[in-house]
């Protein structure tokens, strides 16, 4: 065991970061900040410095940090029953599934622990669905270039970015990619061996690129014509982020299944696959499972999170605040220059500049704003859905100053 660092009450960030750097497998490129506490749209580091959190745990904290109703649900459940395995029924899991199917076109839910696992479940569902119909040669999944579906091998194989895949080849067979928003290429790639088309309604990790409505509508038609499923990866876009409960509502289509995670648990690890019949019933007992999936602790927390999203009108708020944020960014961009494009939907926004995004992110951090880079020149903003106009004003002012600083001009 590494020795020499004691982290106790009142420790500052430095020993925490040294310990982490020494003991953790170094897969993350982290900012040199140790966070200690959060409330609403703000977090504080170990030295007590406050930051406006426009990353929200990468789109996870829809209801903000430590929402009292979610804290209450979590602590109440923690004193009652944490975990049972899925060998038994529990009320929080059943009620969570009911909440989701009642407010969506989907008939059934499967719970897992992350976005990647929700995608894995979707891949298995697609393969089972084809085999159920006696089509064992139909196993291919068609996805989009620049997509991101997760780090497990199946989800990684579905991901349309070589940089994530290349170090881990060989990939799982049965995936092919087409350019995003290219309906003709999609039509050309889908055929009798296609089990499913898998798409993000807004590509998040790829740089915040919304789908063209015509492309998603074409995807629905192409899937139907070929006898394949249309599955949407709404891990990042789902549950209010884009100003609709599900992003597909913007596009006038209904997929056969969606993968969810991020916002679902309010910060506790949970993912879900929701599916419509007949596909929803093809995975049978023993064919898929997760020890932790939807355990009472996370399910109770997730249910409370969804109730807050609904009762506080956060989906409509995301829509309104998304418009407000875009307007503010537009005027900031005409003041400061250096902004090439503002992309997104609702409170999922990418700001593409002509300066390195990493420099903008660092300058913003020093000025008390958390944002992150998705691509060499694109900064992403994913504030909690409880964000208000004053916080947006503050964030956009800081971002403008950070862009100028990164450009070497007076910020
Ligand atoms: C669209 C999408 N799918 C899947 C994932 C993977 O989720 P996780 O990191 O929870 O496995 C992500 C993560 O950013 C994502 O944005």
Automatic annotation (TrEMBL):
Official protein name in the record: Acetylornithine aminotransferase
Miscellaneous comment as given in the Swiss-Prot or TrEMBL entry: May also have succinyldiaminopimelate aminotransferase activity, thus carrying out the corresponding step in lysine biosynthesis.
EC numbers: 2.6.1.11
Group of enzyme by EC: transferase
Name of the encoding gene: argD
GO molecular function, one term: N2-acetyl-L-ornithine:2-oxoglutarate 5-aminotransferase activity
Binding annotation for N(2)-acetyl-L-ornithine: 151, 290
The protein's assembly and partners: Homodimer.
Residues found modified as N6-(pyridoxal phosphate)lysine: 262
Cofactor(s) needed: pyridoxal 5'-phosphate
CDD domains: OAT_like
Pathway: Amino-acid biosynthesis; L-arginine biosynthesis; N(2)-acetyl-L-ornithine from L-glutamate: step 4/4
Stored HAMAP family: ArgD_aminotrans_3
Residues that coordinate or bind pyridoxal 5'-phosphate: 115-116, 148, 233-236, 291
Family classification: Belongs to the class-III pyridoxal-phosphate-dependent aminotransferase family. ArgD subfamily.
PANTHER family: ACETYLORNITHINE AMINOTRANSFERASE, MITOCHONDRIAL, AMINOTRANSFERASE CLASS III
Known catalytic reactions: N(2)-acetyl-L-ornithine + 2-oxoglutarate = N-acetyl-L-glutamate 5-semialdehyde + L-glutamate
Localisation: Cytoplasm
């Amino acid at each position: 065991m590494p020795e020499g660092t004691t982290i106790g009450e009142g420790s500052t960030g430095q020993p925490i970061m040294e310990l982490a750097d020494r003991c953790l497998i170094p897969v993350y490129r982290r900012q040199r900040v140790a966070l200690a506490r959060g409330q609403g749209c703000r977090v504080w580091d170990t030295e007590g410095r406050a930051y406006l959190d426009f990353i929200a745990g990468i789109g996870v904290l829809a209801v903000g940090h430590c929402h009292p109703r979610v804290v209450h649900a979590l602590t109440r459940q923690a004193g009652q029953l944490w975990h049972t395995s899925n060998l038994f029924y529990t009320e929080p899991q059943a009620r969570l599934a009911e909440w989701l199917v009642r407010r969506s076109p989907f008939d059934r839910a499967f719970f897992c622990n992350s976005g990647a696992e929700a995608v894995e479940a979707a891949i298995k569902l697609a393969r089972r669905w084809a085999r159920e119909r006696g089509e064992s040669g139909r196993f291919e999944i068609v996805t989009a270039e620049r997509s991101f579906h997760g780090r497990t091998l199946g989800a990684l194989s579905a991901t349309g970015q070589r940089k994530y895949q290349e170090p881990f080849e060989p990939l799982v067979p049965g995936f092919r990619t087409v350019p995003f928003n290219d309906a003709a290429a999609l039509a050309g790639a889908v055929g009798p061996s296609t089990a499913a088309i898998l798409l993000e309604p807004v590509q998040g990790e790829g740089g915040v690129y919304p789908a063209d409505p015509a492309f998603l509508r074409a995807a629905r038609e192409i899937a139907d014509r070929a006898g394949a499923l249309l599955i949407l990866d709404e891990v990042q876009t789902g549950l209010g982020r884009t100003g609709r409960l599900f992003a597909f509502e913007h596009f006038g289509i209904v997929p056969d299944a969606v993968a969810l995670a991020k916002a679902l648990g309010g910060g506790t690890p949970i993912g879900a696959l929701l599916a419509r019949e007949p596909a929803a019933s093809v995975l049978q007992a023993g064919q898929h499972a997760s020890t932790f999936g939807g355990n009472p602790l996370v399910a109770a927390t997730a249910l409370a999170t969804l109730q807050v999203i609904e009762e506080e009108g956060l989906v409509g708020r995301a829509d309104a605040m998304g418009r407000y944020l875009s307007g503010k960014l537009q005027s900031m961009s005409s003041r400061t220059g250096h902004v090439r494009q503002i992309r997104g939907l609702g409170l999922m926004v990418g700001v593409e500049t002509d300066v390195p995004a990493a420099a903008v992110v660092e300058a913003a951090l020093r000025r008390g704003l958390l944002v992150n880079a998705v691509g060499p020149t694109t900064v992403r903003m994913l504030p909690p859905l409880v964000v208000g106009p004053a916080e947006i004003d503050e964030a956009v002012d800081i971002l403008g100053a950070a862009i100028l600083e990164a450009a070497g001009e007076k910020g």
